[in-house]
Amino acid sequence: MIAPLLSHIQKYVPLTHEEQEVIAQYVQCLTVKNKQYLFTEGAPCSAQYFVIEGCLRMYFIKENGVEQIIQFGIDNWWISDYTSLTLNKPSQFYLQAVQPSKLFVLKKDKQEALFEHVPKLESYFRRIYQRAYAAAQTRQIYFSDLSGEEKYHHFATRFPDFIQRIPQYMLASYLGFTPEFLSKIRAKK
Amino acid sequence: MIAPLLSHIQKYVPLTHEEQEVIAQYVQCLTVKNKQYLFTEGAPCSAQYFVIEGCLRMYFIKENGVEQIIQFGIDNWWISDYTSLTLNKPSQFYLQAVQPSKLFVLKKDKQEALFEHVPKLESYFRRIYQRAYAAAQTRQIYFSDLSGEEKYHHFATRFPDFIQRIPQYMLASYLGFTPEFLSKIRAKK
DNA sequence: CGGGCCTTTGACTGGTTTCAACTTCTGTGG
DNA sequence: CCACAGAAGTTGAAACCAGTCAAAGGCCCG
Which strand D bases fall within 7 angstroms of a protein CB? Predict the structure, then answer.
């Protein structure tokens, strides 16, 4: 059950059997239905989520009322509103399942306690956040260099299986344009 | 000399006198002239930079040949191409001084060695990267919700002193539009 | 003092949005 | 299992935000 998380951690730091037990006690497993929310805008977000199955989307509502997805949560990826989590501020985002999903929850206070018991997890999360930040930098290249059409083709060729799993309007939202425009791109060929 | 860095670290983790000495041995201080490069696209980037004075810009060249700034490096902020640093790949960016600047350099191998000697720095960088990632998430809100004109006004009111220090074409590049368009925004009032 | 870089201004162009109408898909209850 | 209502996707016309190109003016630094 907790195996996927432990094996992910062990790609970065080795764990003794005892450490694995401790970790298992500090995280909870959670099964969510499609459309279920993990947190919503305005409410404080006090946990991080590790997706092992299914798919989440994190989004906010723009001035004009349109939903803007800023990230999908898929297998082996931690997702959360880190501003809310770090500074104890109300969340800026909604985190919602877009498929029936299985995930692990690590609450903020549990994480801090876990660092006391298993200090090498500091190293694990240091690497995780470093990679997440690196990915955010790289994503900026695609989002500022590519036109709408190019972004779609880039994403469609990189994640051909993923785009099958989500409705088009969510893909359009993530790529930063309207569903109508995506429809026109797809009509071209 | 190294005081600004040590006091920044101590906002997150306390340091003994010995630990401060060790850190001082692993980082180098560097003074750079305006327009000097720290690394360029294609070359591996094997260090992070902590700015204590002056200003850096990190940018890449778009398909159409235009420079796109993705980040400014100012006081008390670590800056680097973390994809290059983490995965030992050639850098995607240029990092260049836009003012005479003072900074500290932490090479990748030195950082790893430093973690051995001062394990609590894992915790420091874990927090630093978590905040950096949080900031990247928040920035996405502004960049996807605001029009060009709104981004300018938002940035101008938030950092009124900073925009005085850099040429307008760099601000336009950072905000994701052309210098001509910025000029037209400013002409409106 | 000069030359090149930065900024401004205007006319034209184009990618993307908006709006509205229509079609297709989906899932839920009878 | 079918029917139907609401959600999702498509299509076209008109409008708009921002880019491109070109020319002129300002300013900084050698």
Answer: 8-12, 17-22
